[in-house]
């Protein structure tokens, strides 16, 4: 067991990643694109995070890590911690036992699309697949405006009567308009693909090179070959790409294309929806002009349900606890917002984790958390089934902290809302794919399971940051009495003295 220690100071600086518009971004130690956080399985990772933003609070989440035994290190503001005030340093420390591809991001007030997000890679000496070299490919949408400047217009029912999300200005590959990987004949490359977008799902295709999927969201899979990947905000894929056996005498393009079905401006004639990168076999040869072509878009296209986890973990059952989330978009608090079972989430004044630890035996009573925290309580070792009935006409990348999830059933998209009947329409897979972000289709439903073996307070939300901001959020309070054995480090409690600061407001 070793340690990976990082001293990170987040601060503003001006960057122009698409070459079209310089703007302030949140950088780490003066570096943007932000650094990749590397660790090995078994490491204790420690991050001393200094808030050097000057004008607003912050916080940091490690997307996909279970934080088993360290619930207070999970990062979402007002769920597991208070926001970190300007000038303050806050310590995250936890052991990592999960190999694979993750990412870190601010979980405070729509801050990650302003730049505070990056790759988090956990290396595994016993990865069950062989490769010669590893590459990281970060896909992102990009906005020319800072997110707090766009939120009021998005939420306004008068300025934006249809609740349309702001459309990104560009697509980025590794935070550039284009990127290249140098490739040698005969070698096998592991590409770790991460979509850190605020909003856009991406389609990804390499010209004349197949991808073999070997990992989704930190779960090794039985190798599955594909020439096209659809990846929503928050999701990750590891794929093996085998180079041509002999020097091909040319280079090849690949394209990351934002799913245009998501944008109300479709066809979005003035938005560069695609970003093109290159596999460079021979740098003396020109970059190719030809690009891979995509199949005509079908909103029903999705390919991850058929993946099989490498460990072949069987379907969990019988279900001992079912939670149904009926999601609606509409007008709440006179804004364009989302609601779950009628409630549009509003942050509680005290982080919900802290309420659990202070509540004694009352912690199992949902009423103490406040209606607008959308609290849902589950018991230790429940086999939980969550049903998401999407009453909205757009698809959503559904994410929850603290676990990954067996996908039991996902409906196709519909034009009118369809709710889950309670029994699967097709036999669930015997060894369902597990992941931590799952798309629910437009007006459709999603059913997933997990074992409640990780006491904590876990955020449930849509990973489209516009939607999280608009109340598409619930709090899962898992095994609250067992959770009371955990404690909060003193420097976390210190941060609560800034509780009066508005979310991202002036200090
Ligand atoms: Cu990457 Cu709560 O999420």
TrEMBL record:
* Record keywords: Copper, Signal
Q: Which domain of life is it from?
A: Eukaryota
A Pfam family that this protein carries is Cu-oxidase
Which InterPro entries does this one have? Cu-oxidase-like_N (IPR011707), Cu-oxidase_2nd (IPR001117), Cu-oxidase_C (IPR011706), Cu-oxidase_fam (IPR045087), Cupredoxin (IPR008972), CuRO_2_Fet3-like (IPR044130)
Domain Plastocyanin-like positions: 10-125, 135-262, 345-480
Q: Which residues form a coiled coil?
A: none
Q: Which PANTHER family match?
A: IRON TRANSPORT MULTICOPPER OXIDASE FET3 (PTHR11709:SF361), MULTI-COPPER OXIDASE (PTHR11709)
The family annotation for this protein states: Belongs to the multicopper oxidase family.
Q: Would you tell me the protein name for this molecule?
A: Laccase
